[in-house]
Design goal:
four-stranded parallel β-sheet, about 170 residues, alpha/beta, about 10% strand, 6 helices
Length: about 170
């Protein structure tokens, strides 16, 4: 029953994100630089953003055979299923002793080494917000991939009451 609920829940999130972001007016700055960087580095690129930005990040990079890490928690199960719907590879692990973060980072690094885009929420799974962890630097050193920083914002949005203050754009916003 849990797997069925995860499947339908993740499908609902996937379809809702498509409708939401299709309704929004998007101004993208630097897309040509991203494509050029991917081309010049044979696909190996690391995308870095704050955790609060992951919603649009998942949507925007969905067609690049990317990897995003997800937690081993029960929440991570739903997130992993959503990521798979969007076409991501999702190694699972979290920071902390015995939570599989190091192992997941190794799998993530191998995926990027093969010529794929990898993305990390650089302020971790638990924060503090806007304080970068060392995983992105470690991945860059081990893969030789450049780090592309990105951020997004919606003029009209809802901020989730969580440690990262996740941004959810309101429909039809900019």
């Amino acid at each position: 029953m849990y797997k069925l609920a995860t499947f339908f829940g993740s499908f609902f999130v996937w379809i809702s994100m498509h409708f939401l972001f299709l309704s929004c007016r998007k101004y993208i700055f630097g897309h040509s630089a991203l494509i050029k960087c991917i081309r010049e580095n044979e696909g190996k690129v690391l995308s870095a953003s704050w955790h609060r930005s992951m919603l649009f990040t998942v949507y925007y990079f969905r067609k690049l055979n990317g990897a995003l890490m997800a937690s081993r928690s029960s929440d991570g199960e739903l997130i992993t299923a959503v990521l798979r719907f969007f076409g991501y590879f999702a190694p699972r692990g979290s920071s902390g002793i015995g939570k599989g973060g190091q192992e997941a980072l190794e799998v993530f690094i191998e995926h990027v080494k093969k010529g794929n885009v990898g993305g990390l929420a650089i302020d971790g799974p638990k924060g503090p917000p806007y304080v970068s962890k060392h995983g992105i630097a470690k991945a860059a050193a081990r893969t030789g991939a450049p780090i592309l920083l990105h951020i997004w914002y919606a003029k009209s949005n809802i901020r989730v009451n969580s440690w990262d203050r996740t941004i959810i754009p309101k429909p039809f916003s900019e």
